[in-house]
């Protein structure tokens, strides 16, 4: 089943296999620009990449209630509309990795190969690790901001980490004379408030059969998001999953070790059957 409302996307590359990228919570498709440009090649002919803004993120429409099935349906609908009848290599990080897995399970004909980055198909319990980010974003007085520099100065008082600050502030956009968050902060905050009932932290029971296509499971060696005991469940849903541990990388594997991710994706593309 596919969603009818297309998501906001950015295209990189003009020919070659089709590759779609799905970002994590509070991210945007353009977080994958460096990787996409590298695998598309200098002439753009090595791959046709699509950087997708997930629902409730970037420039894509908002939803009323979080659901992995809804997200996957919207992704499937967007990919089908972008290239009718063509299958995709689907790459997803964290939240986007879970969406990519659900998309592959529920729309296997659309996914010729899957790359899951530092996430497992399991319930992570809650969104407590994100609550500080949510509170920091909500504390910013949007009506008082005089410009982006003012926003950055104020935000630095509640989020000292410059990397995290820059990542979260990419969601801040001027709308006429006012400022607003592109991410659906109220929806994410409401989900986080559910504690152990968080749908974002969970992984859905789709009832679909296992996905039989090739799967590369990129894991940050220093991350902690994926543990040895997660392999059994991953293999149950994705029998051909091949774990690749990236030593020295944390959860943000594609920004901390871009060369490894680029080379991994190139190998995935080389392994695709030629039509």
TrEMBL record:
Keyword terms: Hydrolase
Domain AB hydrolase-1, residue spans: 21-263
Domain of life: Bacteria
Pfam families according to UniProt: Abhydrolase_6
Single GO MF descriptor: hydrolase activity
Protein name: Alpha/beta fold hydrolase
């Amino acid at each position: 089943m596919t969603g009818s409302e297309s998501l906001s996307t950015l295209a990189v590359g003009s020919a070659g296999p089709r590759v779609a990228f799905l970002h994590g919570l509070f991210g945007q498709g353009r977080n994958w620009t460096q990787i996409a440009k590298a695998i598309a090649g200098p002439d753009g002919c090595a791959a046709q990449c699509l950087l997708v803004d997930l629902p409730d993120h970037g420039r894509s429409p908002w939803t009323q209630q979080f659901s992995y099935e809804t997200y996957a349906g919207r992704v499937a609908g967007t990919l089908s509309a972008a290239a009718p009848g063509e299958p995709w290599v689907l790459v997803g990080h964290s939240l986007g990795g879970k969406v990519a897995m659900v998309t592959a399970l529920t729309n296997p004909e659309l996914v010729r190969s899957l790359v899951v980055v530092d996430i497992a198909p399991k319930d992570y319990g809650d969104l407590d690790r994100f609550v500080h980010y949510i509170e920091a974003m909500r504390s910013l007085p949007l009506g008082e901001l005089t410009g982006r520099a003012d926003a950055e100065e104020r935000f630095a008082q509640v989020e000292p980490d410059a990397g995290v600050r820059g990542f979260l502030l990419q969601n801040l956009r001027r709308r006429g004379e006012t400022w607003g968050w592109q991410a659906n902060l109220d929806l994410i905050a409401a989900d986080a408030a559910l504690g152990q009932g968080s749908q974002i932290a969970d992984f859905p029971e789709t009832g679909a059969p296992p996905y039989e296509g090739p799967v590369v499971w990129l894991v940050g060696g220093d991350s902690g998001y994926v543990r040895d005991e997660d392999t059994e469940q991953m293999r149950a849903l994705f029998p051909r999953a091949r774990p690749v541990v990236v030593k020295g990388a944390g959860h943000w594997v594609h920004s901390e070790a871009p060369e490894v991710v680029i080379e991994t994706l190139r190998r995935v593309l080389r392994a695709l059957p030629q039509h």
